[in-house]
Design a protein that fits this description.
CATH topology: Rossmann fold
Structural class: alpha/beta
Largest sheet: 7 strands, parallel
Strand order of the largest sheet: 3-2-1-4-5-6-9
Number of domains: 1
Distance between the termini: 56 Å
CATH superfamily: NAD(P)-binding Rossmann-like Domain
Shape: globular
Radius of gyration: 20 Å
């Protein structure tokens, strides 16, 4: 074989590998390799980690993973009773943690005026902060053209501007002390377009823009920025989702489905990404993962395939049913 033929064969094998292998994964290939060969989660032992949106779902289960790794935790959300239950379970999963190692801090992240006070409380309590996990946020189900612009603004206030405002306070501190880690919970909706979630998809794309800009602007190896992108995860997100009307929630219970990752598995993989300082990772059932690879690396082919599949297919992949009927 000539040199160019060898290069051609290697190229074909490479692309076939990336086309086929993701069908057997629940995260991108890089993260999958790090789970086996990278730094273990236990390396985070002793880190002070602040998790926003910690009262349920991914944030709740990430707290349990980090508690097992002997991290000191600050749990923030608006609901005090739920946070107290999360703290109780953190202490149960790791009896070696002291009550003082897990701090419940009730916080409305959309109240930007409270951010500095909350950050100051964290430093007063633990003397330092090592990791901020920006996990607060809500999803959406609505037809794009029917969305009240006030919904877009309210959703962006929660999913984007509140996270950016808090991160600016924390990043300034990280620069002052010379180290730290920002973790941002985005979504596969931040990587490709998702039907019937226009405002939500826009908000997640905005997060990528803000934090990728920060990463390139600073290029600070001592302050990594990790953007984690889950697909469909078994959490109670659907009942709290935004709709097309201001103040109205979607209000449906999320059904269990094989196409959704468990919160526990998703949280474990996020912890793997954290400890290995991954820039960006995708975490999802193999179908969603393959669709994301297709959209990112084969956009022309993806355009044809997505049209053939239709928007109903994407609703079943995400919600296991049609949540918004098209007209």
């Amino acid at each position: 074989m000539t040199f160019f033929e060898i290069v051609g064969v290697i190229t074909i094998i490479y692309y076939l590998f990336y086309l086929i292998y993701p069908w057997f994964l629940d995260c991108d290939l890089h993260l999958s390799l790090l789970e086996t060969f990278g730094q273990p989660i236990e390396t985070l032992r002793g880190k002070v980690v602040w998790i926003t949106g910690a009262s349920s779902g991914i944030g709740e289960h990430l707290a349990y993973v980090l508690a097992k790794a002997h991290c000191k935790l600050i749990l923030s959300a608006r609901r005090a009773p739920e946070l107290s239950q999360v703290k109780k379970k953190c202490l149960e999963v790791n009896p070696h943690l002291q009550d003082s190692d897990v701090e419940v801090m009730v916080m409305d992240i959309c109240d930007l005026s409270s951010h500095q006070k909350c950050f100051d409380h964290v430093i007063t309590k633990f003397g330092r902060l090592d990791v901020l996990v920006n996990n607060a946020g809500r999803s959406q189900r609505a037809a794009w053209e029917k969305i009240d612009i006030r919904v877009d603004k309210e959703l962006f206030d929660l999913n984007v501007f509140s996270l950016v405002a808090l991160s600016r306070i924390v990043y300034s501190y990280f620069e002052e002390v010379g180290h730290g880690h920002l973790v941002v919970t985005s979504s596969l909706a931040g990587v490709l377009g998702v039907p019937f979630s226009g405002s939500y998809t826009g908000s997640k794309h905005a997060l990528h823009g803000y934090f990728q800009s920060l990463r390139v602007e600073k290029m600070n190896k001592n302050i990594p920025i990790s953007i984690v992108c889950p697909g469909a995860v078994q959490t109670p997100f659907l009942s709290e989702s935004f709709t097309d009307t201001i103040g109205k929630k979607f209000g449906e219970v999320t059904a269990n489905a094989k196409n959704k990752l468990s919160s526990e598995r998703c949280a474990h993989l996020i912890a793997v990404a954290m400890v290995n300082h991954v820039d960006e990772c995708w975490i999802a059932h193999s179908t969603s993962l393959q669709l994301t690879y297709l959209a990112r690396y084969y956009p022309n082919i993806a355009r044809v395939i997505f049209q053939l599949l239709g928007q109903r297919f994407f609703q079943y992949v995400r919600d296991n049913k049609v949540t918004v009927a098209s007209e």
